[in-house]
Amino acid sequence: QVQLVESGGGLVQAGGSLRLSCAASGRTFSTYGMAWFRQAPGKEREFVAAINWSAGNTYYADSVKGRFTISRDNAKNMVYLQMNSLKPEDTAVYYCAATPLYYSDYTGKYNYWGQGTQVTVSS
Fold this sequence. Notes:
The chain is mainly β. It has strands at residues 3-7, 10-13, 18-25, 33-39, 46-51, 58-60, 68-73, 78-83, 92-99, 112-113, 117-122. The chain is globular, with a radius of gyration of 13 Å.
């Protein structure tokens, strides 16, 4: 069992930055692939970024590549999403998720989800 709690969302102007955090509970956290997804009003939940269990590999959606950075600290049971050069189209609820797989960009492969944190980017 893994429980996830996100934090760090808020309101920011376009071009600004935010850092999201995801605190995980569970002794097996370090064995899980982790990811961030987001869901805007009226849209499906979409993949943002993922990181494998050892933090040796990261994966990004084309829309955030070069602007967002995912990282993890297994000693602290934490996952982070550094978001720079934010755009109004980044506005969404951001979710942290865990999968027993090495990596996936498909929501159905993730067993555990946080409650989400709202990110709003004003123009």
